[in-house]
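ERR on first pass: missing label on line 2. Operator R.T. fixed the label and resubmitted. Corrected input:
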Amino acid sequence: MTGSVVGTACDACLRRGYLVGRLATHIAGLLDRPHGRVAGLLALPDQKLVEAVAGEHASDALAFLEEFDAVQARASVERSGAVAVCRHDQSYPAQLGNLVDAPRVLFVKGRGDLASLSGADPAVAVVGARRASTYGLEVARELGRGLGAAGVTVVSGLALGIDAQAHRGCLEGDGAPVAVLACGPDIPYPRTNRRLYERICERGLVIAELPPGQRAFRWSFPARNRIMAGLARMTVVVEAAEPSGSLITGDFATQLGRPVGAVPGQVTSSRSAGSNALLKDGATFITSAADVLDELFGSDQPRSSSGPNQRQAGFAPPGDPVQRLLLEAVEAGLGVDGACAHSGLPIHEVRAGLSRLEASGHVSRDALGIYRRTAAR
Amino acid sequence: MLASIPTFALVGVDSREVTVEVDVRRGLPAFTLVGLPDAAVREARERVRAALLNSSLDFPLQRLTANLAPASMRKAGPSFDLALALGVLAASGQVPFEAVSGTAVCGELSLSGALRPFRGALATALGARAAGYERLIVPVENASEAALADGLEVLPVGSLQRLADLLHGRWRPEPARPRPAGNDTGPHAPDLADVRGQADAKRALEIAAAGGHNLLMVGPPGAGKTMVARRLPGILPPPSFDEALEITRIQGVAGLGDGRLAAERPFRAPHHTISPSGLVGGGSYPRPGEITLAHRGVLFLDEVAEFSRAALEALRQPLEDGFAEITRGQRSLTFPARTMLVAACNPCPCARPAGDCRCNDVDRLRYSRRLSGPLLDRIDLVCQAAAPPAAELVDRHGEALERSSVIRERVISARERQCHRLGGSGAYCNADMDGRLTRRHGALGDEAVERLLGSVEQGGLTGRGHDRVLRLARTIADLAGRPCISPTHLEEALGYRLASPVGIAA
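pass 2 clean. output:
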């Protein structure tokens, strides 16, 4: 696949990118504790970085710098279907420059447009837990969909759970998602999201700090989080336990002076402890894509959120009173028997009515057929 | 002198003719048995010797050779005893040889000379009839079961002495008659009127019974899934004579029957620790598994997610084909397995009521994947079983709930409609219809067609799911007594179909 991304990287920056890849294992030796942070390490110039992390292997790493073959490196980037874009290139996202340790080169893959990250157009990072609740997943998807439909670029990390749902929602809203990876740009990680990765490549962008072929390290996840926070004008945490990688993204955003939003969660659920704590600390209260747009543009700004991709059906209650009764029953979690009692209808009409509600998008069923109210759209 | 006596050996749930040849000639006294006998058959020599001597008959002190033909087939079990004893008697001239012609024998011997019952009397009798025999001599206990095979004279005999009398023409027993069938599923079967609430499960049970569809009940522990499932036999139509014969034959082979024609469809509920071969049949001399024992009846898998993956995987082929094919060593056997599958499971792995559940979608998906593929593919209806609220459990002045017998009437008339429509096509009920039959008989109105197309466009319905929904809608229309499937029928069917896992898949 040939990406439509155009960009160039000068030899020095490209060499830096490959140096980080080369030193990745050494950095791992220093930092790979849970939630270990890169803390300025990546801001060091090449020589210092080598001295800081390589230890006894420093001479090898210095030799690597000496012998670096830019032509060969460019060829291998091209083979992987990616493009290297360095900070000297026009299309390098200007917003990233605010990071003290911004990556000097980005490896980018996909048919999307890097200009969408230039800072002129808004980009929002939607991040959250891998092990998320149904509620969190639904909200993430809705946010993604709403933002995508409103023309906002949705940045996330392709992880399981919230991240993937945000990407999916953005695709559904006809937006161009941006996935920032903790490994090389050519590696769909996690593998479960391989198809999603391919769809993002077709419509949006996949961005990585590590060169093609490089696997992910524990430290590279928080490092990737700083890039997400750097690319986005605002960061929204959907569901995060304490401590969590999503909170790290939020921290980076705060350090950059960018707004952080959080979606309220159940106070009894440990899965929402982190995001609720953010709210307590003054994060913007996010219940829908509209809240994000308000924060970005101010509440009086007209929005393009009523685009053709917005499906309103599930939002408006059904006109038919019987259907409304059934919907109430589903909302209250009464189950099919409960819907029967609540509506006073015979069971065969309840089943038929529920499948009409499903067809109109008001309710959905899980893998074992249990009805749920679809989130408001 | 040489005598050859026909008998029968069980192969799966069928019987195959085996000829027992006995040769008696002068020489050192010996009794050799050839023709691939197993240990139980070899021991027959001792039983035959003792039984003959204890019956005031003579065991010749000569060289005896017995062959079980065809010699290529493995023989197991003690049911060759009687044929061997008779062969010895005939070969040594103690009974007239010509008296034996046109007669097959089968039975086990006790040392006293009394005859003991064997397994699979009906299968043996059907085999004897098909092989062209006029008479079958069996132990008294097997006689009424064997007599279910029409057009075969079944002679019950109590002992070897009696057998000798019979062959000498000194005595003739009354040919056996089948005992009247057991009571129709009557007041003994648990009644659906005892179950309060459970509207969804009851309705799904009725539809499943009417069309022979496979059913999955999802509900928290204690909601009453098992209670509802156990009441399914009470609303199933009674087996036809041919079906009853198939059921009785299988029960006879498994040693479960009481010698009478089965009046009820079987209901088998194996525990979830069952092995794959226990479920679909197996063993070095393959025996029928639970799915065969449930032939023409119900196989109920409670806590279906707890069954081993291998066991569920093994169910795939029999559920698809209606028979179980077992290959062991060099031979392959086919057991009938046309059964209705009813399964029950919890809505999520933690099995707590909806409010307390802490499972997330990934947990749930993983849980449902335990059943996926092999089993969920074959499920036509998924219903919810919920514990009824306490108020509903109170009997309000004997408020009458619908009795099983009433529901059964509806089921029977729906089946009759299907039979009439499907006559001659090889399918017995809607669930048996293949894609071609489904399209021919799933008469849809215009409005219904649009509704169905809408569902297809929504993406939830594949080609295969499309047929399944049509079959289900056809049954719902049959229950309502309508020739055409209305949009409401179709909507109800869509409501019971299995949702494809949403949310997680890209």
